[in-house]
Write a structure and sequence with these properties.
The protein has 334 residues and is an alpha/beta fold. It folds into three domains: 89 residues; 98 residues, no CATH class; 117 residues, Dna Topoisomerase Vi A Subunit, Chain: A, domain 2. The chain has eleven helices and twelve strands. The protein is elongated.
Amino acid sequence: MLHTYIDKNDIIKYVDQLQVWWWLLGFQVDEGEFFKNPFRVDNNPGCKLSKGIKWITLKDYADSRFHNWNIFQATMYKYGVGFNKACYLIWDEFIFNKDRPLIPQTRIEEDNIGTERCHIHFIPYLDKNGKSIFLERDKAYWSPLSITSDQLREDFTYSVKMFRFNDKQGRMFQVYPNSHSYALTQPSGNVKIYCPDKTIGKWTSNCDEYDIGFLDRLPKSGDYLFICKSYKDCRIQINAGYNAVWIQGERFLIPDNIVYSLVKRFNNILIYFDNDDTGIDRSLYLADHCNHLTNTNKFRAVWLPEHLENIKDNADYILAFGEDALKQQLKSFL
């Protein structure tokens, strides 16, 4: 059973109601300033926002249907939803999507990743035949990276309509993303939800160190293997013609048995993380750890030139310089 932990009083405590009204109206107004009601045909600017003891309400003296509305009533009307989902929409827009908590104990942090108590359920966008589909906003995100809808389907990556999960304390949350979001599924059944536009809550995952993407697709042997830190960078790497896998993040280690298997199959294993301080430090650490474990020198850390401003990974590079330039850069690692 899904328990709702988003209470209207918690929302009121932590959001600026005037900003919510600006979001709903589609423009900014001051309290007491008259404007035309965007929720109906209105030719005369006779509405205003009025601040009371607890609420900032809409005053529409010409149409009683909208008079004394609060932010929840307006959200329900604008989006055609019930009260419960209206709470989630406001929470997702102004709290879950911002670098500030709803209440401290329910703040969604990246440390939810990798806990066996975290269960994730998602609803993808599907056509009438059950085939995953991608919206125009999805194509606008992936196409510049030369990643196609067919490749996303092949990789069991889905565009997400809704997802729900529990945190480490067992509380359940249900999220309706207000921008493009994706489920990166693993053969284990674990899943990583990726919301590119978010700061807090960008990743929600129950994956662990054994969830190594594309590991089951590798050839039996090869000369070079790249180990990337994300699905996006790994798919770009594969499209460039290289063997590649992705782990769940730069802070993850690779299980010893998998390290031993890879070192027997590949002559050169390149740890390819971001070119920022964290990425470089973690790639050097992982390469050293794996070399020490296997008593070899097959593992090597590589990264993009550090002088490149705001370009830290494959995705940034291909957007800035194009696919051919990236291929030339990757050759320099070999």
